[in-house]
Design goal:
The complex is a heterodimer. Helices cover about 0% and strands about 65% of the residues of chain A. In chain A, the strands form five sheets. Chain A has a 26-stranded antiparallel barrel. The two termini of chain A are about 40 Å apart. Chain A contains two helices and 36 strands. Chain B contains 14 helices and no strands. By secondary structure, chain B is mainly α. Classes of the chains: A mainly beta, B mainly alpha. At the A-B interface, strand 5, strand 8, strand 9, strand 10 and strand 12 of A face helix 10 and helix 13 of B.
Chain lengths: ~700, ~300
């Protein structure tokens, strides 16, 4: 019966297409088959981070059917590979559109990771025997990778214009393993285990929207519902630091299921004097539910029970957003807008009282964070004499948040940009922006408490100046050239401990040049340098009372100030050419891209140096350093009209060096001691080099 | 009095006559029809008749109005003067004001949800016109001059450079696009994002981070961009800086948060520390985006 209903429904849906072949039509398409031969040395996961390039044949299809009344499109790429995607769309011109799609791709992190745990992929990890094996060759091998599958469809009704109605639904499934880590002892300690967290997520989205669009009015109502489901809400694992005889597993909590909906109204109305009023009113609610864990393993590895005021946590956050914008162009040389935006989250989640009679203090309650942001602004654009154009804006932003240290910010954001349209072939621009953030500090009032000195950069008072200069030049139709320079400097003016200042300089050059009908040259160059400084204090807990005071506090081997100067330099360029050796018949494509990044952390410790320590040998000279080169040469030969052949070769090399991964070891320490850390190899040795040969044929009809 | 009335009526009559004449000129003699364009602009004409603009079943399309002249304006003078780029015709070239060009498109497309908030768009205020990205003669998807992201990278060159960095979204692979996050036609969000706030946008794909969690990390709840940069980073996970220094710039306290972790605490140093090597702070604080773990040991610290 269900089948009959399905078939009947499908026929009903297709009924508008019954006369599809009855009129003059246009059917066209493209089919490509590409063979790939690949050779790789080194880390395959990094090379295949978001792709599935392997030896084999790749298919690509494009079909389009178009009549005076109807249309249909079909697209397919990488058929049968982990990056395959399909889309089928169609409809009646001016009446409706509908589409369905399927898309998948991997996110590969590390292949060949190792762990002594059994049960990888599930939510219970254990190992045989009394203690984990130290012999890494006996460990289980697995891949850290997450595959995403996304499918859905949509329908747009246009036949009732100016009214419209859209509906869409999608579902994303993620499946795989992701690296996480846990400290073995509570509340931390020197040892950790890296674990393979199972990813088994499903997110379903449904969106409905209806509205009216006919000048002078526009309005729409929309409803979005999203549901996130996680098949594993907890990861159970046998903790090697558990006391002898303790068989109760330790628990790492995974993201809880959640539901979300959003209701929104958007509207706009045209007003006299070339003005328009627009508004956006939205309300959303996110809810989650989690079964709480009622025990933990204490420092001795024993099970410690917890008393919870409620065994379930119900999360609930409401968000309200209101935008009101008046934009206007009352006179030819002036345009602008004024706006107000209100954004507020209200955290109505449960506050759970957790009691542990062995702890001091014995109870703990979760805080409920929420915040409110109000923004008012004015933006003005002036058409000046001599074809100058001046854009300016001022935004005032006030943020209030439920936070102990900095509950309030007031931001003044100014910007001015001047551009000149005096010459048709050139567009120079110069701009300046200043952010002046004031922060209301309500943290510690005791200078001996380090919190008195700490200013967290996300909310700290700061002045940020940004300068930007750019020019686009097209002296002739076939030549385009652009240069951009940007300088940004941020001074966290009230910060003593924490991030104190940042500076970045960026230059980009981009251009292309077509020489007659024979060659097109293109290239780009980018250079960016980022410098940041932070000042910190290392100390053990008081006494002395001023142990945490960076100004008057003591200086010793364990209590001292230090700073870190981070530098990042990145070069990036690419050059290429399309050579039309035989115009419209034979084309060669050459391309070379290069990226290089050098990072450095320059530490200074403000205390007497320890034996064997210098101010230089503590620095980190390799800080996410990498270099990527790629080369590609391709020939495209149009055999006959509609049929083309492609032959190409590509080479890519990625070299990575980083202080945190150099000399990687799977274990640090020795089992069964509680100070042993065991890693799985996540993110290690990402360097690779690869050769790719590809050949293909494309048939267009 | 009667004389004044006569003068007024005469002036009014003359004014109406001028108006009628103007209207007549616009309606009849200045418009010459698409067939006339075909003779000189054969290729453009061919692309026009194959395009959606030539669909008679769609109300308001150029073919139902004045054909080529719906967008380019009346062509009589252009033809009379022997043609030429921009001669007595709107050729959508560089010399034409952005607003003038866009207004031709908005005559029809202004009545759509896509363009409803164009007036608020940063693109509009920086004199970007429809024809910077679209051409009705391209025959490509959405009549774009190039596909996203190449189209966007044409102007946003700094973003192009960022998208080449080692940690990035799968933009180059075509698995996400600029328009997945941004609305080039204008929106209420900053940077023309398709959401009311940054986190709302991120949670569209990263729904597992939505919570709500029992133990929250305030900067995470307020703005993902406090720690992440969306277009590309030299550091894993699109982080703005690398742990432990990223974390320590906020968390300095007694014991390990304020401790300096140097080369000596790496695998190759004399005293390797799990607070430094591999993923540093994230080795233990894996639930950094929020946790529903037990208060003890430190759900608050996002270690379970």
């Amino acid at each position: 019966m269900k089948l009959k209903i399905t078939i009947f429904t499908a026929i009903l849906c297709l009924s508008p297409f019954f006369d599809i072949f009855a009129e003059e039509s246009q059917f066209k398409g493209e089919i490509t088959l590409t063979g790939l031969f690949r050779d790789i040395n080194g880390n395959e996961a990094k090379f295949k981070e978001y792709n599935d390039l392997r030896n084999g044949a790749y298919g690509r299809v494009r079909l389009n059917y178009d009549t005076e009344k109807y249309f249909m499109d079909f697209k397919a790429d990488d058929i049968a590979y982990d990056t395959q995607n399909y889309r089928l769309g169609g409809g009646m011109w001016g009446k409706f559109k509908a589409d369905i799609y399927y898309d998948e791709f991997p996110h590969n992190f590390t292949f060949g990771a190792r762990s002594f745990y059994q049960g990888i992929g599930g939510n219970f990890l254990t190992y045989p025997g009394a203690a984990p094996s130290l012999n890494i060759s006996t460990w289980n091998e697995f891949d850290y990778s997450v595959k995403r599958k996304n499918y859905g469809g949509g329908f747009k009704l246009e036949m009732l214009k100016p009214f419209y109605f859209d509906v869409s639904a999608s579902r994303e499934e993620r499946d795989g393993l992701y690296p996480i880590g846990v400290s073995l002892r509570s509340p931390g300690g020197p040892a950790l285990e890296q674990l393979a967290m199972p990813i088994d997520y499903k997110t379903t989205n449904i969106k409905l929207e209806g509205g009216y669009a006919k000048k002078p009015f526009f309005f729409s109502f929309s409803y979005l519902y999203s549901q996130f489901e996680n098949d594993n809400n907890k990861l159970f694992f046998r903790n090697p630091a558990a006391a002898p005889g303790v068989t109760t597993p330790d628990i790492f909590t995974l993201p809880p299921d959640n539901h979300y909906f959003k209701l929104a109204f958007k509207g706009a109305v045209k007003l006299p004097m070339n003005s328009k009023f627009s508004t956006n009113l939205a309300f959303s609610r996110a809810k989650s539910e989690a079964d709480l864990v009622s025990y933990y393993l204490n420092n001795a590895g024993a099970v410690t029970p917890l008393t919870l005021s409620d065994p379930k946590f119900n999360g609930k956050i409401d968000t309200q957003n209101y935008d009101f914008v008046l934009s206007s162009n009352p006179i030819s040389f002036l345009e602008g807008k004024i706006f107000y935006k209100h954004y507020k989250t209200s955290n109505k989640s449960d506050q759970i009282v957790t009691t542990d009679i062995t702890s001091i203090p014995p109870t703990e309650v979760n805080d409920l964070f929420d915040y409110k942001k109000d923004t008012v602004g004015v933006e003005l654009g002036f058409k000046l004499p001599a074809k100058f154009y001046l854009n300016t804006f001022y935004h005032y932003i006030k943020t209030k948040r439920e936070r102990e240290d900095i509950p309030e910010n007031k931001d003044d954001l100014y910007s001015v940009e001047l551009r000149w349209n005096g010459l048709d072939f050139m567009l120079p621009k110069v701009g300046y922006e200043r952010l002046n953030r004031r922060a209301k500090f309500e943290g510690s009032t005791d200078p001996n408490d380090i919190e008195f000195w700490v200013r967290r950069f996300d909310a700290a008072a700061k002045i940020r100046d940004t300068y930007k200069v750019s020019i686009d030049i097209s002296p002739i139709e076939n030549l385009n050239f652009g240069v951009v320079y940007k300088h940004k400097k941020t001074d966290y003016r009230d910060t003593i401990v924490g991030l104190t200042d940042e500076k970045s300089n960026l230059i980009n050059i981009d251009g292309d040049f077509t020489i007659g009908k024979f060659v097109k040259l293109f290239g780009y160059f980018g250079y960016e340098r980022i410098d940041s400084n932070q000042f910190q204090r290392q100390f053990a807990a008081p006494p002395p009372a001023n142990a945490g005071n960076p100004i008057t506090g003591p200086t010793s081997a364990t209590r001292f100030n230090w700073d870190a100067k981070q530098k990042e330099k990145e070069y990036d360029y690419g050059i290429g050419a399309e050579i039309y050796a035989i115009p419209k018949k034979l084309t060669f494509v050459l391309q070379h891209d290069y990226v290089r990044s050098n990072g450095l952390v320059n530490y200074t410790v403000f205390r007497a140096l320890n034996p064997g320590e210098t101010q230089d040998n503590i620095d980190l000279p390799a800080w996410d350093d990498y270099r990527q080169d790629s080369y590609m040469i391709k020939a495209v030969y149009n055999v006959v009209k509609g049929l083309s052949l492609t032959l190409g070769y590509a080479y890519e090399r990625f070299n990575y060096k980083d202080a945190q991964y150099e000399g990687f070891r799977y274990t640090v320490g020795a089992f069964p001691a509680n100070n042993t850390s065991a890693l799985t190899g996540a993110y290690t040795k990402p360097s690779y080099s690869t050769n790719l040969v590809f050949m293909g044929a494309t048939y267009k009809f | 009095m009667g004389k004044r009335i006569s003068v007024f009526i005469s002036v009014l009559f003359a004014f109406l006559l001028v108006l009628i004449t103007q209207s007549s000129v616009k309606g009849d003699s200045q418009y010459i029809g698409s067939e006339a364009c075909k003779d000189c602009h054969g290729d453009y004409y061919k692309s026009f008749i194959k395009s959606i603009h030539n669909k008679r079943v769609i109300p308001g399309t150029p073919v139902n109005r004045d054909g080529c002249e719906s967008c380019h304006g009346p062509g009589a003078q252009h033809a009379e003067k022997g043609g030429g780029r921009g001669v007595a015709i709107l050729a959508f070239g560089r010399k034409v004001d952005a607003k003038t060009k866009s207004s031709m498109c908005l005559n029809c497309h202004g009545d759509s949800k896509q363009m409803a908030f164009w007036d608020m768009s940063k693109h509009r205020s920086t004199s970007i016109s429809c024809d910077n990205c679209h051409t009705v003669h391209s025959m490509k998807e959405k009549n774009l001059k190039a596909m996203d992201p190449e189209l966007c990278f044409g102007c946003h060159t700094a973003i192009k450079i960022r998208a080449n960095k080692q940690s990035r979204h799968p933009i180059k692979e075509g698995k996400t696009r600029c328009y997945a996050c941004h609305n080039p036609h204008g929106s209420f969000g900053t940077k023309m994002i398709k959401a009311d706030g940054v986190n709302e946008l991120c949670y569209k794909c990263h729904a597992e981070k939505r919570g709500p969690f029992m133990w929250q990390h305030a900067p995470v709840e307020e703005n993902c961009l406090n720690c992440h940069t969306p277009h590309g980073s030299n550091h894993l996970k699109l982080l703005t800086a690398k742990p432990p220094l990223l974390c320590q710039s906020c968390h300095d306290a007694s014991q390990h948060p304020g401790t300096i972790y140097t080369r000596l605490q790496t695998f190759q140093g004399g005293a390797p520390s799990n607070r430094m090597y591999a993923r540093s702070c994230l080795n233990c604080h894996s639930n950094i985006h929020g946790s529903v773990g037990p208060a003890f040991p430190r759900g608050r610290a996002q270690v379970r």
